[in-house]
Write a structure and sequence with these properties.
Largest sheet of chain A: 8 strands, mixed
Number of strands of chain A: 13
Oligomer: homodimer
Structural class of chain A: alpha/beta
CATH architecture of the domain at 9-16 and 63-89 and 102-107 and 139-322 in chain A: 3-Layer(aba) Sandwich
CATH superfamily of the domain at 9-16 and 63-89 and 102-107 and 139-322 in chain A: Ribokinase
Order of helices and strands of chain A: EEHEHEHEHEEHEHEHHEHHEEEHHH
Distance between the termini of chain A: 18 Å
Chain lengths: ~325, ~325
């Protein structure tokens, strides 16, 4: 990392601050409520009420893509900050507690007197697929005013989640954060979040990746969607040409990082798969924790894989095992 | 069950309406915060704040002893109602959603402008033990005014949790509900909740069991604590003499029911133990679902065991598998 002075934070995540509400449902539930299985859909307050009323008893945990990444990166020993908007309510307090307890600095002021804290209703069908319905609530009050420039300038990598592109004010904040980071000589990372999100905002993402992103995270579906290619090799070639560092996760096939002429391929860590939620978020955490510690691309990809293997071996998108020693062990 | 007319509900549970906040901690955390490992301690708002601030990221689910029993009994096909006090806040809405979604009628009005919804911080140490810290909040606003007499009179069994005895107003409501049930020719069941709770209120429990309880649920520790005996056989003999129906759960040794001269012993269902939280609550659900369906004591104990085996095979105190057919299968 080249930068004007030593950074106070290794990673600054910016994303939708969301509480996950998770419950098992049958296939009929998905059909009856006209959901697209496996996708993330944005919903309004009325639909959120209706889905929640129809849902079985649920379990609540703090979620959000970039927040998952931040919590895991802190768990891996990185110095981490996070920006995201919750409301001044109980679920907001739960989110604030959880991210702070994970060791992440979270300076964003809560929204007072507006929409409640965002929630994502995650419906798990018997085939293990997750259908997500997100009510953005207070997240839509995240604007450039919440981008604390001093923190951005003091973070080696500012990491943005693609889901921010679903809200115009957040898009604007996103571009502002990227510009601020670059002015300070820092790097900007982006995760594409999901292929449907890429579909919704392809032109904007293409422009962003070309002009403002130094490090791009995507899985195979997302990168193929971005470049509208069914050939993963072709999509990887485009990635190599357009971003300084591209990182493609491939599920049980491991991951791939391309930087200029350099290419690193790493197999997946062996593990028993229980729940793949958050695997990509936590992979990015491992990758960035190693990258900002000055490690080789191979060590970055390996730490990503180790963190992802931990997260998919249990329910929930937050690390349960202490992986603080892994970075040292990798050398 | 002898009663004046057919009951609209099989089971009415009355208890503390609590949201569980669960997180893993190490042994040092328990020592540093001067907790008694494995116990349930009542805490005030300030201590709740302090413990929560020190706790790792957590997961929230609806809990409460009697509420767990009610949700499971409904899942087993019984017609169930529940009384308990939550506040008019987000966690109250979560509790209300979850118990209603489980199929339980929950008519109690939320508390407005008072204490927030109760929460129980459950700290799980690496040895699998759970140390609970309960802030009762809105539960302490549960009084006789919340005992809807028409519902009590229309429930075959009114089931009370011992934890209600930790609050004087709830104790009063407890006695009122028992008297109302008996006037209507219904039965009153009590679970002792935990041995420390029995220690705190032994004299009151002894009086209550002798005078007002038809069906007593307890585990070995609790029944030995109630009768201050280290001899389980002696404690069982006292139970047989003092209540019409006594049900003692014995963990991996199964359960025992005594009714007059009748004695039934049932072995535990084979299962892999993951988390024993709620095993007693859910055993009572199975037992009562069979009892109110007019089944033999042996079927009651077996359905209790089947439900308990399901609950301990995963995290959380609410059934995940559909056991609606089990009562029919038992015959």
């Amino acid at each position: 990392m080249s930068s004007s002075h030593a950074a106070r934070f290794d990673v600054l995540g910016i994303g939708n601050a969301i509480v996950d509400v998770l419950a098992p449902v049958d296939e009929v539930f998905i059909t009856r409520h006209e959901m697209r299985k496996g996708s993330m859909t944005l919903i309004d307050a009325a639909r959120a009420e209706a889905i929640y009323a129809a849902m079985p008893p649920a379990q609540e945990t703090s979620g959000g893509c970039a927040a998952n990444t931040c919590a895991a990166a802190a768990g891996l020993g990185a110095r981490v900050a996070y920006f995201g908007r919750v409301a001044d309510d109980q679920l907001g307090a739960v989110f604030r507690h959880d991210i702070a307890a994970a060791g992440v600095r979270f300076p964003t002021e809560p929204l007072i007197g507006g929409a409640p804290t965002a929630r994502c209703m995650i419906l798990v069908t018997p085939d293990g697929q997750r259908t997500m319905n997100t009510y953005l609530g207070a997240c839509t009050a995240f604007t450039t005013a919440q981008v604390d420039e001093a923190v951005v300038a003091d973070a080696a990598v500012t990491y943005l989640e693609g889901y921010l592109y679903d809200d115009p004010a957040a898009q604007e904040a996103f571009r502002h954060a990227a510009a601020t980071a670059h002015r300070a000589g820092r790097k900007v990372a982006l995760t594409l979040s999901d292929s449907f999100c890429v579909d919704r905002h392809r032109a904007a993402f293409l422009e962003l990746v070309r002009s403002h992103v130094d490090i791009l995270f995507a899985n195979e579906l997302e990168i193929c969607s971005l470049y509208q290619s069914s050939d993963i090799a072709a999509a990887v070639a485009r990635t190599r040409a357009e971003v300084a560092l591209g990182v493609i996760t491939r599920g049980e096939d491991g991951s791939l990082a391309v930087r200029g002429q350099e290419t690193v391929e790493v197999p997946a860590e062996p593990t028993r798969v229980i729940d793949t939620t958050g695997a990509g978020d936590v992979y990015a955490a491992g990758f960035l924790a190693a990258l900002t510690a000055g490690r080789s691309l191979e060590s970055c990809a390996r730490l990503g894989g180790i963190a992802a293997a931990e997260i998919i071996s249990h329910f929930g998108a937050r690390l349960q095992r202490d992986l603080r020693g892994e970075l040292t062990r990798l050398g």
